[in-house]
Amino acid sequence: MTGMSFRWIPSNPSLRSSHYLPRSESGFPLPPSPPTWRLRGHLLPPREEYGPLIAIRSGTEKIVIIGRYKAAVDIMEKQGGILADRPRMIAAEELLAGGLTIGFAHAGERFRRMRRALHMHLQPKAVEAYQPLQMSHAKKTVLNILDELYNFLNHTGTIERVLKAMRPGAYLVDSIPWLKYLPWYGRELKRGYESSKRLYIRQLNHVKQQIQSNIDVGPSFAKYVLENGHSYGITEIEAAFLAGAFFSAGSTMTSMATCTVLMAAACFPEEQAKVQAELDSVIGRHRAPTFSDQQSLPHLQAFISEALRWRPLSANGLPHRTTKDVIWGGYCIPAGTTVSGNHWAISRDSEVFPEPHTFKPRRWIDDQGRLRDDLRFFVYGFGRRVCPGEHVANRSIFINSLLIFWAFQLTLDPGALLDDMGYMKGDVQRPCSIQFKTRVPEAELRQMMQKHSESDVA
């Protein structure tokens, strides 16, 4: 590895960097820092040179980037309470989100209230209620592929706006906060907030009307928060943003993850064939797969895990902020420091993932042929800020991947050039061009996908 990509580094004229930042008040030194010129092009130096932690400054802001698996676990997981806060992100949090989204919320009572509401509804056992809906959507996806209608990334515009607004240096207001009070500044961000607010309120009101009309809305977080939000002290506008973000972020990230899995299948046909051999052995081709097959398909689950390690959904996760000093490896990360786990670098840690640049689903399988429970990748973030919808997302990614692998053989479009690194644009991945060939006679496949029965539920 000659360097590690990190797109969240600020391109700020006040960026000040030397080989090492000063010692902290604790007496322990801050993590090492590369020279300024090494940061150009958003490329950091080899981890072997600077170790698992790298520190930089942007004006008065201290930033620490974590690039190794053990450091991420020790700091961001085991000391997650100290890193549960977010740094102030004026463009993303205050202007674009109106200070209402849980993802950007600072640690405190309001964050805990919203988090409790989500957790109660999204416990692993509770999310089983979503399985019929997820199965129905997955079957429609297969039918849309047959009809050449499906676009996995038709909602990426919103997430791209958020990710752009998160980047320090993208908006001057993050360095000069008083700009937010100028009526002409950040108009596109303010319009984005108003647009999201109208959409989320309209969606919540629609569910409210259905409830009042005694219409069965099925499993719905919007319904849950309308009926139970008062017990968590959640206001109606908070409920609208909580439910809206749950839907929009969940559907977008699930689509992105499914795209990544499909690209990996097309790029590595031998590994795809191994998964499909498992599907043929467990399921055959005369019935549609269901959630009840999951525990019998370790190789499919390993393939999904490896795909999301091979090409992380984002090179960098959301930044955290320390509320106390963190001492690790002889270094001090002072209170008030912005800390970010570099997903790309962590996924390339050869101590945990030997041959990290090789696509090896087998690394997730133990000697008994079972899915390993001692290895994980941080697809959904770290510690107490891990995405609360991860269990729903995992089930959606699994059932979509299962049905598509079972129904189709995936190949790259020979008429389209593949650049699986160029496939990542900014912080949001883009799909390569994939061709689908049915593995089941099309008439039978359509009939099975159009049939909805109790067998859809595990």
UniProtKB/TrEMBL annotation:
Q: Which UniProt keywords apply?
A: Heme, Iron, Metal-binding, Monooxygenase, Oxidoreductase
Listed binding positions for heme are 387
GO: which molecular function terms?
A: heme binding; iron ion binding; monooxygenase activity; oxidoreductase activity, acting on paired donors, with incorporation or reduction of molecular oxygen
Cofactor(s) the protein needs: heme
Q: Pathway, according to UniProt?
A: Secondary metabolite biosynthesis
Q: Which InterPro entries match?
A: Cyt_P450, Cyt_P450_E_grp-I, Cyt_P450_sf, Cytochrome_P450_fung
Q: What is stated as this protein's family in its record?
A: Belongs to the cytochrome P450 family.
Q: What is this protein called?
A: Cytochrome P450
